[in-house]
Amino acid sequence: MTSFWLALSAAFKWSFGFFDLTANVLNWILFLVASGFFTYWCYILVVTLGAQKDKDYHSPTEGKHPYYDPKIYKNEG
What we know:
Elements: H1 2-48
């Protein structure tokens, strides 16, 4: 019976090592993805909107989704 518990203990020890390795790999993948997004965000800020280019920038959704739509909110007064 002791050998059963030793084998079970070894299996648990292996499984925790497996989960630890999996967590580290997943953590690195998420870190690399987040770093890629951050680098892209910095690229957009510096290259596309850098210097005074933001004055010439026009949003592709500008005017399509207004915060205030006079057709919806009519003056009832």
